[in-house]
Amino acid sequence: MAETIKLSEVEHVKDGSNYLRGTIDDSLQNRVTGALNPDDTHLIKFHGSYQQTDRDLESERKRQKLEPLYSFMIRVRVPGGVASADQWQRMDALSDAYANGTLKLTTRQTFQLHGVLKRDLQQTIAGFNQVLMDSIAGCGDVNRNVMCSSNPRESELHRQVYEASVAISNHLTPRTTAYWDLWLNGESTYSSAINEGEQEDFEPIYGKTYLPRKFKIALAVPPTNDADVFANDIGLVAIEQDGQLLGFNVAIGGGMGMTFGMPETYPRLADVIGFVPAANVVDVCEKVLTIQRDWGNRENRKFSRLKYTIDRVGLDTFVAELHQRLGYELAPAKPYRFETSGDAFGWSGGPDGKAHVTLFIEGGRVYDKPGYLLKTALREIAGFHTGEFRLTGNQNLTIANVNPKHRQQLQAILETHGVWNRTEKQTALRLNSLACVALNTCSLAFAEAERYLPQLLDRLDAVIRANDLTDDGILIRMTGCPNGCVRPYLAEIGLVGKAIGRYNLYLGANHAGERLNKLYREMLDEDGILRELTPLLEAYAAEREPAERFGDFVVRRGIVAATTHGQNFHA
Amino acid sequence: MSLLSQNQALPLGLDDTTLQRLTTGLSDQQLIWLSGYFYGRTSAGRSEVQQAVQGATQAQPAAPAAAAKLTILYGSQTGNSKKVAQQTAEKAKQRGVQVTVQDVNDYATRALKTEQQLLLVVSTQGEGEPPVAAEELHQFLLSNRAPQLPDLRYSVLALGDKSYVQFCQTGREFDERLAELGAQRLLERVECDVDYQEAAQTWADRVLEVIAAEANTGHAGGSGSQATAAETLTAPAPAQYSHHNPFEATVLEKIQLNGRGSSKETYHIELSLADSGLHYEPGDALSVVPRNGEALVAEVLQTARLDGTAPIQLSGVEFELGTALTQKLELSVLTRDVLERYAATAPQHKQLAEIVTDIPQLQRYVYGRDVADLLREFPAELSAEQLAAVLRPLPARAYSIASSLLVHPDEVHLTVGAVRYAAHGRTKHGVCSSHLADRLDIDHTARVFVERNEYFKLPQDAATDIIMVGAGTGVAPFRAFVEERVELGAEGRNWLFFGNPNFTTDFLYQTEWLQHLKRGTLRHLDVAFSRDQAEKIYVQHRLLEKSRDVYGWLENGAHFYVCGDKARLGSAIQEALKQVVQREAGCSAEDAADYLRALKKQRRYLEDVY
């Protein structure tokens, strides 16, 4: 290209960072501030961490002549959301030792620790490493945690899809040794990333400026779209035959984030572009990613995601480039059907005789409070459980492959710690709720989410019960800003924070994550939300068709128009 | 002849003729004596008389020394001893005594043998140590190198604080040692509590009476009036505001500096000095006249079974007991003198009598106890008058000033750590810190006066580097130092070492320091937060980590300041600094100790510890 490109600031930081080192080491040595040097705040994301402040204390500390209370969120990658009991116990212990005593299970099947002080970063990250976990590429302009359906019932098929997700994750993990140098004294006891035998850093896939923006991949096994594959840069829909994995339908260009007041930014669902056999899925992911590496916008980060690249060049052009780079063409997509993007709760049995139990974790937050000792219960269970802990894409937790002789003990622990009731005695609305962290630590938040949604649900539950909708799963998702961490534009009731106590209300997504919603009302306070939703829920209860979902109902009734593509989301 | 030089203006009502008439037939010596006599008779308009007399003596060649010369030495930490010494010299001069007043820090110890009359005004620091200025003389005198001093006549004025067990220890040691060495007292030692002014003036008058009487009886030969003060005799302008006449300063701002969850409770308090005319310099202290808390007063009244409205007298002024207990008498700490008086008033308590006579026991007893504890544990039927007589006056508390007047005109800022602890069944509060922390809100007034700290001052030369070591509220004067240096555009570099328990909550004035660091007005900032890691790390550890640069700065002439808790900081920093010197200069421990001694002697190692 002839014209000069004015790269964004972050591009310069990456370029000069010597493969993500920057001056992080100096930043960590600096004792007079809890913050990093400004440039390093961009780089630390690639190591899985965000520098944050306690916004509740912002003005108070300013008056006290104290700097903001800086702390770090650290996101631990868990490909496919599958963690061992050892790993669970370690995360539990690290959250008490260095974080705020809680664990956040995220909508991308990762663990988040919040409130880690700068001086404890190294010990915390070293603690992950000891149980074979890492936080590299937890955030940053790289491929993030690869999601995978956590439904364990179709045991063999799920195992194969999970293995594909791990293979993709490993292939796309950055190769820089900066992570080991900075956090592990250069010693890697476990590495999915390091270049064996290499003397110098290089990034065979990413190059030294990595991607223009974050990149997300998810795999789902129909009929459950619990990984919300269409919200991802690459969504992979598993196609099976006789219980064996054949390959994947490939969808590209999904993404949730937008910016208020910028209609040229929009959420977009991925387009299905064909089918790839399982053996080639890693290759397809790499080529899609490298096209985005080369074609993505590096001037304005608001337009850097793959979805804008595709809409800029056209889907056909993009697919043609992909076929060229692959050296082969994708086969036509195969039929599939998703029914829900929610989780199924309670006990279930696999074909191999093992049992699984999925627990509702409100807001994904694992903590203890009087009468609800979730964190303690899970710690005790991790002490004897021989299966896995599976983090779902809906902030919930499946304790999978429970040894039959442990089942009774496990159930007893859930009951005595007040955990079982939280799953068993909820409205389906609450069981299908998601909330991002928002205040007090997320710097992007305009409004509350995780701390507030439970109270709003108390009032909505009353409406639900009054209208006999207790067992009707309606996806309700709240975020503190429009960036979309809990995929609010795929919610049947989406609440996106615009100011303290004020939310935009979006309606009309379908229940399986295949249609975006649409703005219905702006700047509602709590009473406004109730005032708007109550008549709609009443009408839904009275006038729906058999098995009709709330999102479909409001579209059928013309309460909102259907969003058929990201580019008409704002229409 | 004219006694006055040509250009010396005569006071109103005097002309040459009158002067001639008054002085005809008098010898020079008689004239000089008379000038002192008249000067001494005058109490009003002193400064004009002083000028006149100085003019007179300047015009006159020195008379042969007839009376013994008087040397006044002062060993001062905060400047109080210096003030008294200068006032005494002034009085001596008025009496026509040939007097030299000198800082003991600058005094050549070998000169002691030649002294005839010596007045020593010396304070006591902490747990019975001499002020830095007097360390060398103290060490010399108490050693076996000290000469016999049979010809010396002397008197000691000891300044101290009765809340310390080793009250006036240094003055006592000087006094007793001089006697041992054969010197004879002009007057018995006088010991002054924090409220020293009156007792000090009385001592000065009486000791000068003795000197005058001896001169007249020819005890020591010679007389003379030439003031040969080693430094200017101009007494500092008498402080307009004092303990007895404090300025009512309005509270402009009050901020709890510690973040949530801190183990500390520190307040930044801004007071208005508008219309007071009060002036201070960085390094000075502000004394606050506190009041006791209602709860403690009630506790004392209840335990003593006395009525708060009972009339009592303090120094001849009538008060209600409750008012006196609130405003005039110390309740929150027990001191030796109070215990002694109480034991005498309540002789039935044998155990108390025993405690009073045994210092270690006494120290253990007073620790954490207040007047209410004493009254409860050793009950006695005291009248309101008796109780008031037992107690000691409520002293003012001095806080190192945390602001520069240049930056905050008409304001003074304090950094106050609230003292609270549980002991002997009740929560105890530091009288003044809780007065400021709990009972003074914005727009209330605090009763204050400025106390000069003579030595804890910025270097005269603005190009000199400074290293500041402050722990906890000890960082206060350094805020003033850096503010002042920035405002003056001082080119010397500033380096701060700061320590406190926890980084996130206890980094006092953090955002200000970070600003200074960013602007370069603070060259280095090294911090130690003792409880942020398994092992305790303190400022002295940071000093050692930075030993090369610290030593480099010192070699480059830097001044080194320490402020904070004496027990925790004082000796630890000195030890660390000795190690720094030993390591960087590659010298012996003794040489390092000498290096530090020399720094102190040059007034480049300065402490404000409490």
Q: Can you walk me through this structure?
A:
The complex is a heterodimer of chains A (571) and B (610). Chain A has 571 residues and is α+β, with helices and mostly antiparallel strands. Chain A is 31% helix and 19% strand. Chain A contains 18 helices and 22 strands. In chain A, strand 11 and strand 12 form a beta hairpin. In chain A, helix 5 packs across helix 12 and helix 7 runs parallel beside helix 9. Chain A is globular, with a radius of gyration of 23 Å. Chain A starts with 8 loop residues before the first helix and ends in a 15-residue tail after the last helix. In chain A, 53% of the residues are buried. About 1% of the residues of chain A have low confidence. In chain B, strands 1, 2, 3, 4, 5 and 6 form a 6-stranded parallel beta sheet that branches. Chain B has a 6-stranded antiparallel beta sheet with strand order 12-9-16-7-8-13, with helices on one face. A 5-stranded parallel beta sheet of chain B has the order 19-18-17-20-21, with helices on both faces. The termini of chain B are far apart. In chain B, a hairpin with a 2-residue loop joins strand 10 and strand 11. Chain B is an alpha/beta fold and 610 residues long. Chain B folds into 5 domains: 47 residues, no CATH class; 148 residues, Rossmann fold, CATH 3.40.50.360; 100 residues, Elongation Factor Tu (Ef-tu), domain 3; 95 residues, Up-down Bundle (NADPH-cytochrome p450 Reductase, Chain A, domain 3); 144 residues, Nucleotide-binding domain of ferredoxin-NADP reductase (FNR) module (Rossmann fold, 3-Layer(aba) Sandwich). Classes of the chains: A alpha+beta (571), B alpha/beta (610). At the A-B interface, helix 4 of A face helix 17, helix 18 and strand 19 of B. Chain B: It comes from Hymenobacter lucidus. Chain B: It holds the Pfam family NAD_binding_1. Chain B: Its EC number is 1.8.1.2. Chain B: This is Assimilatory sulfite reductase (NADPH) flavoprotein subunit. Chain B: Its cofactor is FMN; FAD. Chain A: This is Sulfite reductase [NADPH] hemoprotein beta-component.
